[in-house]
Here is the input.
Amino acid sequence: MAWQRVGSVGDLSEGEMMEVEIGDQSIAIYRLDDGFFATDNICTHAFAKLTEGVLDDGCVECPLHAGIFDVRSGEALDGPVEDDLKVFPTKVEGDDILIDA
Here is the structure.
């Protein structure tokens, strides 16, 4: 596994998300009541950054065409989106948020 530090626990409050770059890949980090999750940050329908959308109840809504994804599983749930998002394993060690990208 290639665990990489992408931030600190204090960087996000519950219900917030942020973009991180690993190489040329844009990844969205989400903090929910049950932990941290990570997905591709680019919508599978059209090029839009999900971190510019809305995070609500474990789902992110794309700002471009309002497609909705479950951030825990990456599953495409509603709207014009059909393809799921890639998800990345996430863990917390001490104060560090790590993802396996």
User: Anything to note?
Assistant: The longest strand covers residues 25-32.
